[in-house]
Design goal:
The complex is a heterotrimer of chains A (329), B (407) and C (292). With 407 residues, chain B is of the alpha/beta class. Chain B is built from 13 helices and 12 strands. Chain B folds into 2 domains: 202 residues, Response regulator (Rossmann fold, 3-Layer(aba) Sandwich), CATH 3.40.50.2300; 155 residues, 3-Layer(aba) Sandwich (Rossmann fold), CATH 3.40.50.2300. Helices cover 42% and strands 14% of the residues of chain B. In chain B, strands 7-6-8-9-10-11-12 form a 7-stranded mixed β-sheet, with helices on both faces. In chain B, strands 2-1-3-4-5 form a 5-stranded parallel β-sheet, with helices on both faces. In chain B, helix 2 crosses helix 11 and helix 11 packs across helix 12. Chain C is mainly alpha-helical and 292 residues long. Chain C has a domain of 201 residues. In chain C, helix 2 crosses helix 8, helix 5 packs antiparallel against helix 8 and helix 10 crosses helix 11. The chains are: A mainly alpha (329), B alpha/beta (407), C mainly alpha (292). At the A-B interface, helix 1, helix 2 and helix 7 of A face helix 1, strand 2, helix 3, helix 4 and helix 6 of B.
Amino acid sequence: MSERRFPTVRSLLALGGALLLLVGPLFLGNYHHYILSLILVNVIIAVGLNLLIGNAGQISLCSSAFMAIGAYTTVYVTTETGIPFWFSLPIGGVAAALFGLLLGAPAVRVRGFYLAVVTLAFLEIIQVIIREIPDITGGVRGMQAPRPKPFGFSFSSDLRFYYVVLVMAALAVYCARSLLRSPVGRSFNAVRNNETVALAMGISVVRVKLIAFVISAFYAGIGGGLFATLVGFIDPLEFGLLTSIQHVIFIVVGGLGSIAGSVLGAAVLTALPELMRGLKEYNEFFFGGLLIAVLIGLPQGLAGLLKARPAAWVHGRRKRPADAAGGTP
Amino acid sequence: MVGFLRGFATATLAAAVVLLPPLAAVAEPGVADDTITIGAYGPITGPAAFVGLGGRAGMELAVEEINAAGGIHGRKIEVIFEDDGFSPTTALAAVKKLVDQDEVFMIFGVSGSNPTVGTIDFLKERNIPTYVSIASAPPVTHPFHQYMFRGGTTESARYGELYAEFLTQFMQADGIAILSGSDEFPKNEGDATERFLKEWYGIEPLVRLEFNVGDKDFTPQLLEIKGTNPDVIVTLGHVTEAQIIVRQARELGLQQPIFGSGAMVDNALIANAGYAAEGFIGGWLTPLFLDSQHPDMVAYMEAWRAKNPDAPVGRPNVFDLLGYGDMHVVAEGLRRAGPDLTREGFAKALETLENWRVSEVATPRTFTDWHHIGNLRMNMMVILGQHWVPLRWDPARSSTVLDEFKK
Amino acid sequence: MQFDVFLQLVFASLSTGSIYALVALGLVLAFKGTGLLNFAQGEFVALGAYFALFLSLYTDLSYPLVVLLTVLATALVGIVIERALLRPLIKAPAFTVVIVTLAIGLMIRNALRIGWQETVSNLPSPFDGMSWAIGGARINLQYLWIIGASLLLVLLLVLFFRLTRTGKAMRAVAQNQTAARLMGVPVGGVFSLTFAISAGMGALAGILVAPLTGVEAQMGDVLIKAFVAAIIGGFYSLPGAVVGGLIIGLAETFGGAFFGGTFKNVFAFALLILVLLVRPNGLFGRAEIRRV
């Protein structure tokens, strides 16, 4: 591509970010490793959710339910069957994906508010199930989640586990990018823009939507398994409506339909409450205010900032901004 | 080019990660010539904020008193308080920040059970002295750990023992209906109560019903309870639901006495349920209620009001008192550890406390070198004439909670 | 089931349902009138309750005056929010607006929680302690007041929209903004008025329900149920919102009676799914006409 001579802000950021992510943590403390890992977990979930909402044009308020399924499955399999974490994590993802299929069956038939409410219903059902099978899930008391120890090499250090999460996040982003560039990804966009036209073009709209639900559930499940292992403890309260809404806020503030947006939104909004600790009991209040200010200023999200190309301006060349699916459902 | 750089960097770092040496230990963090820095965490935002705000205020009042009296061996106490929003994830972040960034000497916990449990593994691993004031979840004190202490609140199991004995021996109740919240603290209380009713007295509750936190209407559950015609209705949860339950129970014609959990003994219950709450009995974790005329309580209230002049009706609450009493316990431990303060010395010093308390506003605390459960007492309070009045009752049976440590 | 138990459940559910109906009405009204999905609607309920609490504690005003002032004050807050924060977002994507209203709600909730630190406060009502004996049951008069006041309000709204010029102007804007503007209707003013009415209704719901539930910062959580109620009703229909609210109230209460208190929500959702299976656009909704 002819971008080589005019690096975009986006690619500069990506390079700088990659170096920082790899080297930076070595100079930071345990607290930072933990927060960075939390950010990366949220990145994974946000990327998955954006595929569903921003690209495929659906609505989901139950991403936290898929997180929960992934988390409980991963931890249960690891602790009860002795299968190592490296396998139980994808198993957790697959379990979440299966439930995504289950949700997808009714969900593809409805849209708009009705879809939102179907996902709400799904979330409530999962929460009740978690509560009502305490022998497996620990119920409201939660569960301990151990860190992997392959061949005696312990990952209980947050720094080491950070690199695990980093690799998974990188994979997640890479796969999402490939997906969006593939025919399936393009059919996402088609379905979002106009279902009837997509149908007329020969796209099986139902199948595409199902794929979107399943993939987004898988991402959330992987995120959940990593999350549980990172924190070391699963509390079912952490997988409620509020968390699902937080995920939606990540991608709305970041930029719907944009992978970079998902990354940005998740990173900024996970780090912000930690940075705002100094405000003590006022931190939520100001967080709300900040959200409002950012969204009024940048209604399309932070990803809009990334399309700037300063180097091109300097050289007097103006290219049309890259196609970013920032549409609305 | 970029790809190569990235690959090289990754390989180098992979090697570095594997070979990374452990962080060097710092000599007694949190202890300076003139200050001792203590880290504290609890919920000060979100629906559970009344717990953390209370615990923090009580703790800060104690710190003020201690520093005004000259501090500990010439050092003033400084507290850094972090919000945890009642989430284990955030609590762990708060504790990591306090230990890692602020390098505090010890951790003082005024949060609920689940958030506290989320922090325990990390604190145990780092050998940080941890004093939990409010959470009753078992993992804090079971298994025994050199640096984990529980103060004013008592163990989950103990709640069950006390409630079971009180209901059957004092209230002479045979038919007991339990209505508990589905979140973990009331659920723990309910399970423990059921367990000891069965184990000690061979009684099973007539019915055990639950409600969700945030529910506003309890008509279905109360009507079902009415149908079983119990001697006593036990309701476990928070005061927000309690005041509705109590009022609705009376409206629906339920005349039986109502017994409630520790969190319900709160002036807000009287303010909201009014005369429907007369006769309500609940467990209170300190010997005196807030409007007692005992000189210790009067002094406490004066000091508290002076520091918090715009207090609403519901404050101070039990968490204020617990935070206050427990911070004084911590200070006593710091004192006994001597001027040459180390974490190990502090933990050992706490273990020398026997029935110690700052004044009558707190229960006496005892720690030993084989258990760190500071308090096993509760006092029953009843609403009479729209005031909380202490009931003179002491349990006759001894607790089984310490048995597992005696082996 | 005995008759008196049945009666208690009926009145409890109608009362709960009326509150959901009021909040759902506010939601649907704002949506129809301005196209905005206002997830801060729940916080108007809380605001109303807190305003009324403040007035009843620090002034000697009578109950009707307290209600009036509270509704007006909250309506004013609604107008301010609409003008200052939501007007700039007219062209923004729907998701953005929803998140902004959520953030507004978050700020209001936190302000209330920090500003008034009591865990739960009591809002007095002239019906405190009064009950009506019927068929072996004693029904709290507040339930009846809630049901009655809600019915009255819905009636007044219907008359307002049918008979008054302003009401007709609002309906015009809801149907077709451009046409209304061309007819000389001040669309901006109508937007503000819609929000004001919506906020006022939320406040009224707060005043009505607070004597039963207490005044606390979490009151806004009623929004979720109201949202579901509005959807059952079709989300484009005002009578639908009312019916939806009552249905949820009934489903919750009777579901809780038969299946256990912790399954209340699941029951309400199960009912929702059932309704959507039979009528995919809600009870009173129109089928969407999708332009290709």
